Amino acid sequence: MTARLAVAFAWLAAVVTVVFLMAPLATVVAASFSPSPVFDLPLDGVSLRWYERIGRLDGFWPALSLSLQIAVLSTAIALVIGTLAAIAIVRGRLPGAEALATALVSPLMMPGLVLGIALLQYFRAIGFTATWSALVLAHLIVTLPYVARTMIAGLALFDFTLVEAARTLGCTYAGAILRVMVPALAPSFLTAGLFSFLASFDNYPVSIFLTDVRTKTLPIKMLQYIEEAPDPTLAALSTLILAATVILLVASDRLIGLHRMAGTAE
Model pTM? Predict the structure, then answer.
């Protein structure tokens, strides 16, 4: 009887969690099709006027381009640095490896606003005023923990004797890494890359302190727009971002499988 109650409560908690997660998303999607210029539910009809208006938003394309550039570049750099750091921690037998691993993920333990203020003060103290470069460095700090933690977990299960076997067959160390380790750790790379890209593209609390009038990322531009002209255009834009995220997940599932990305493959 107790076991059945525990299972029932577990299912109830799961259903409540899904409802609370999906209800806000469903509301945003529904509002994006509203014919009314205000957020009005239930809908009196269906209109695509707000989707047509997205491309005409003032400063939308530069903000989108900037967010994509920073997200792609910071993710690529984080994948390289985070993987090398993970190899050093797992394989290098470094003194204080656990402390180093904790330091790599420490930005996740710090509130974004605190991290943003700290970076702003530090960049000002050293006279670093390049906005674009400052955003890349800040987003690298934000994305690196996702890569490091994911790759440490992936490398802990990897058999490094495969690399040594490839080297005995004539591969260089770098060639063995590319031919053996990279394909074997593809789920970890993909998981780390997806989390890093989304964390960078959607970042607001750190970016808000490092942007200027001419350089604004998409989340900051969206917040500015909703303060100036709150209409369902942002709901339409949010729906497109949500759809793109779902497409990324579906593509990842087709390529590798979400069960392997989650580390539950047998």
Answer: 0.83
